[in-house]
Amino acid sequence: MTWLDLPDGTGFGPDNLPYGVFSTRGTSPRTGVAIGDLVLDLHAVTGDDVHATGSLNGFMVRGPEAWQALRRDLTTWLTDAAHQARVQPHLVPRSEVTMHLPVLVADYVDFYSSRHHAENLGRMFRPDSEPLTPNWRHLPIGYHGRAGTVQVSGTPVVRPCGQRKAPTEEAPTFGPSQRLDIEAEVGFVVGAPSELGTPVPLGAFERHVFGVCLVNDWSARDLQAWEYVPLGPFLGKSFLTSVSPWVVPLAALEAARVQPPARDVPLLPYLDDTGTGPWGLDIAIEVRLGGQLVSCPPFAGMYWTPAQQLAHMTVNGAGLRTGDLFASGTVSGAEADQRGSLVELSWGGQEPLSLADGTSRTFLEDGDVVTLTATAPGTGGGRISLGEVTGRVEPAR
Amino acid sequence: MTWLDLPDGTGFGPDNLPYGVFSTRGTSPRTGVAIGDLVLDLHAVTGDDVHATGSLNGFMVRGPEAWQALRRDLTTWLTDAAHQARVQPHLVPRSEVTMHLPVLVADYVDFYSSRHHAENLGRMFRPDSEPLTPNWRHLPIGYHGRAGTVQVSGTPVVRPCGQRKAPTEEAPTFGPSQRLDIEAEVGFVVGAPSELGTPVPLGAFERHVFGVCLVNDWSARDLQAWEYVPLGPFLGKSFLTSVSPWVVPLAALEAARVQPPARDVPLLPYLDDTGTGPWGLDIAIEVRLGGQLVSCPPFAGMYWTPAQQLAHMTVNGAGLRTGDLFASGTVSGAEADQRGSLVELSWGGQEPLSLADGTSRTFLEDGDVVTLTATAPGTGGGRISLGEVTGRVEPAR
């Protein structure tokens, strides 16, 4: 299928072709496409200066026809041997590149769309109420996060300081978070903007969303618990959100589309996706702590799809900008080993995780490294990779 | 004090000198400074291309020394008659200019720092609990809003649609908001960025904040009430936030600085401003509905100052970017005619406001025009103006 000699099961075959922003020693950041263990220098191979701007935004704003055209070209260039002589000089080993934040993030929205995650948190934190709030089945709950602290994979996770108050304490105290956590999520990158005042219906999802990345929405549970009533999470989240460097085009996930779970209640028309193609996605996430696999959250089971999230987010007329990022919320499955956060995996810190090195964890310790990876069915019959997002916890400053 | 013939009580004398982005017919947006009824074309008079970029961001990122230097120059040019011949050709009547959004907004944060506002909302919506949540006196509660829908004064306010559910209803319904409201606020524009991982202490407020504007954070109370538990306001706010076009430099507010109200509880050291200069600000806001004055919210009484808001917002290591906007939250005073939102002025819709035209209002009707203006003591002995932010409600689409 390609004139390149790709490693077996690479996940970065010609049916993936994710976009990222890379540099090599002494060069400035530019756009590349991952193929096998290589990066194709898109600026060099196309001569189009939009790929030398240091982010994908300039290309994304051109819209879905431009995305499709370039993907067609890339497929031809990498599969038809007639292009080998011209293309090969612009391939760089991925081991030699530094990856950068791929997108200038405009607005960042985080949803809460895993029913298992919402139920787990409800059971832990509001044990006397129904686990789901009354609105949960009727709309994809979400909130705005801090776009300025979205960073690329590998950015150190400096343990945040802040206020927290245990129920037994009279007054809050200040210090490094004692309940530093992860949230394994999938993020969706908006490429084509929309006009203020005009909602984006379910059927227009593909015309606005450019691609998909992995997101670790680092969370300080103790800060969050004290601050979040009544206006929601703030400092417990805003210190860092890490994203994977390769943005997988939506077109590469065509074979991963699945029906979302059956819904409990009738949905209002703007959220009712029974008449449109399904936008559940069979993305299998793996969470590793210190190299050890600790969870396998299945994105396919998410109650709300990204198309529903986008329709909801804009139904009040809110406009989209190129570079908007919206994430799914923590992906948790029904099983204990499918939970996408430590607060769930350790059940609020009451059931520590045993690690292979003989230690155990409730929340993250300084020096811990957490890595999320994911794969999905590709159109070529195998599985494509969404790459990874990783971070190492550093002590509070 | 100036060679210009300024109107009496202009509010835009040489002790104000706010920055904005303007255009005249057939020209592109550039930076100007308001003086009396005129605008000084900063690009033309300085020849500095940073003032032709269509936003203040390029100038703001240069930092506080650059801000001070230009303000000194402007003061000299506009007060020393030796500069008249050179400067006068670059003055344009304000009646001939179109104003644009002055700042490319990076992140938008909205606080909740008026005790009277928080207590009023607590009494209305949680009548069986203490009006203030337990955290309120210990930290300035805030949340991230949608930066992409911050627009300049005059942008039409299209009535948003969305889900709402009355307590008596079984399921939510969809439609135009029936409780469209205003929030009279003061906004602070970050000029100089900060590094990820490094908090900005109280004493560094002036080194990062460039200036001040007025903010109307339009709110759909019915959408908000249904969606906001547990992650905070989202679509009830994200359809539009309007800002005044003139950003008043912090230096122009030196004479407006006042002590904030006495605090009820000891503050953690990072919020304790007893040792630093006070950053309460004596800004007097006026709210007009259809031209009629309906409220006079006093900013001087805000419990949390903008310096405390900034220190809190960054204490977890969150970095600042040039163009970050943080707003105070609704400004409400102790008296009934000092409330900064209609939900307070009409006490949840139970006590309609009588207007001079014989009509009454609980929430906004299509066609209503709301205008916020404000003044503060200037260093010249009079009062300086913060300009105005206005918007007209259009029917839902």
UniProtKB/TrEMBL annotation, chains A, B:
GO terms for biological process: homogentisate catabolic process; L-phenylalanine catabolic process; L-tyrosine catabolic process. The active site is at H117 (proton acceptor). Residues 16-102 form the Fumarylacetoacetase N-terminal domain. Ca(2+) binds at D110, E183, E185, D217. Mg(2+) binds at D217, K237, T241. Gene3D superfamilies: Fumarylacetoacetase, N-terminal domain (2.30.30.230), Fumarylacetoacetase-like, C-terminal domain (3.90.850.10). It comes from the Bacteria. Pathway: Amino-acid degradation; L-phenylalanine degradation; acetoacetate and fumarate from L-phenylalanine: step 6/6. InterPro entries: Fumarylacetoacetase, Fumarylacetoacetase-like_C, Fumarylacetoacetase_C_sf, Fumarylacetoacetase_N, Fumarylacetoacetase_N_sf. Residues 154-175 are annotated as: Disordered. One of its GO terms (molecular function) is metal ion binding. Pfam families: FAA_hydrolase, FAA_hydrolase_N. Residues 109-379 form the Fumarylacetoacetase-like C-terminal domain. It is an enzyme of class 3 (hydrolase). The keyword Metal-binding applies. Substrate binds at Y112, R126, Q224, Y228, T330. Its cofactor is Ca(2+); Mg(2+). This is fumarylacetoacetase. It comes from Geodermatophilus pulveris.
